[in-house]
Design goal:
By secondary structure, this protein is an all-alpha fold. 73% of the residues lie in helices and 0% in strands. The protein has six helices and no strands. The chain has helices at 6-23, 26-41, 49-61, 65-75, 83-95, 99-107. Helix 1 packs antiparallel against helix 2, helix 2 packs antiparallel against helix 3 (49-61) and helix 4 packs antiparallel against helix 5 (83-95). It starts with 5 loop residues before the first helix and ends with a helix.
Length: 109
């Protein structure tokens, strides 16, 4: 599939991430990370919620959880009651050593 819109790149990134995680294929994870980074760093998307989610996903794949939190904290006010967001935020906090904040996020689920 040739992508044109940011949503299409995001979909392609997610599909590659799923394939990479289920088959432990590092090439798919690298492709996924590249697509997430492409969307998140683009001038038209970098200051949008999907753009910031993409950058968080990119850094999550790279296991750079301090950087994941930079992006998730910037959009957290929009997702205070979202279980999926709170799960991802809580896990990222724990991975970055911010256990108290991670626990609080996970308890909101």
């Amino acid at each position: 599939m040739e992508c044109v819109l940011p949503k299409e790149y995001i979909l392609k990134a997610v599909v590659h991430a799923v394939i990479g995680q289920t088959s432990e294929a590092k090439d798919h994870m690298r492709i996924s990370q590249n697509f997430f980074q492409m969307v998140g760093a683009s001038p038209s998307e970098c200051d949008t919620i999907p753009g910031r989610q993409c950058m968080a996903s990119c850094f999550c794949i790279l296991k750079q959880f301090d950087d994941v939190l930079v992006y998730l904290k910037s959009i957290r006010p929009y997702f205070l009651n979202d279980d999926d967001f709170n799960w991802n935020y809580g896990i990222a906090c724990a991975a970055a050593g911010e256990y108290k904040e991670g626990e609080e996020a996970l308890l909101q689920i």
